[in-house]
Write a structure and sequence with these properties.
CATH architecture: Alpha-Beta Barrel
Number of helices: 10
Largest sheet: 4 strands, parallel
Number of domains: 1
Shape: globular
CATH topology: TIM Barrel
CATH class: Alpha Beta
Strand order of the largest sheet: 3-2-1-8
Helix content: 40-55%
Number of strands: 8
Distance between the termini: 24 Å
Structural class: alpha/beta
Length: about 210
């Protein structure tokens, strides 16, 4: 794994963030995540101004890992890189986007849930894949089944992850980290409940640590 992937794995969870008011919320959200022991964020392009949020978070906390999620186009990759994104996450396996990110020397985690997706990722030499939507696509049982023919991959499941099932995922060696929005819901962000976000991050870190050490 590269250094970005190693850092993400060491943290164990990746908040998947949709910001409706990046100018107001990006910096204080970054502070809440860092104070909760989760200095990483996947800022999705599902909301306008994602590039502004990425830039603001990187400026407020230069040591924080900030990436772009729900990236669908090459132009979005360019916008994310210009804003300071350190990794790209796509909802599906798009060979053109993977090739472009590799050309730009930025880590990419494509969404993969099928043998065809995994085989395509293998051809690109990828090592860490996003498994999305995780629970809806078969969850941990499918991830384990997929690792039999493809043992070279680590996986970042996203979709349906919560405090209730985080430990089950985290204790599995195939899992690099778990993506989730449960600690950064629209209610928590829009109502600026920064202390609650920090607390949920602390709980998540504790669960991951205990699960990995079990």
């Amino acid at each position: 794994m590269n250094e970005i992937e190693k850092r993400i794995q060491s943290i164990g969870v990746v908040p998947v963030i949709k910001l409706n008011n990046p100018e107001r919320d990006a910096a204080p959200l970054a502070k809440a995540l860092v104070e909760g022991g989760v200095p990483v964020a996947e800022v999705t392009f599902r909301a306008a101004g994602a590039e502004k949020a990425i830039k603001a978070m990187r400026e407020a906390y230069p040591d924080m890992l900030v990436g772009a999620g729900t990236v669908l186009t090459i132009s979005q990759v360019d916008e994310a890189i210009a804003a300071g994104a350190q990794f790209i996450v796509t909802p599906g396996m798009d060979p053109d986007l993977v090739a472009y990110c590799q050309k730009k020397d930025i880590a990419i985690f494509p969404g993969c849930t099928t043998p065809t997706d995994y085989h395509t990722a293998y051809k690109f030499g990828l090592e860490v894949l996003k498994f999305f939507p995780a629970e809806q696509s078969g969850g941990l049982a499918k991830i384990k089944a997929m690792s039999a023919p493809f043992p070279m991959f680590k996986v970042m499941p996203t979709g349906g992850i919560s405090l209730k099932n985080l430990a089950e995922y985290a204790k599995t060696p195939i899992i690099a980290a778990c993506g989730g929005s449960y600690m950064v819901t629209a209610d928590l962000i829009d109502n600026q409940k920064w202390d609650e976000i920090t607390d949920l991050c602390k709980q998540s870190v504790a669960i991951v640590k205990e699960a990995r050490n079990a």
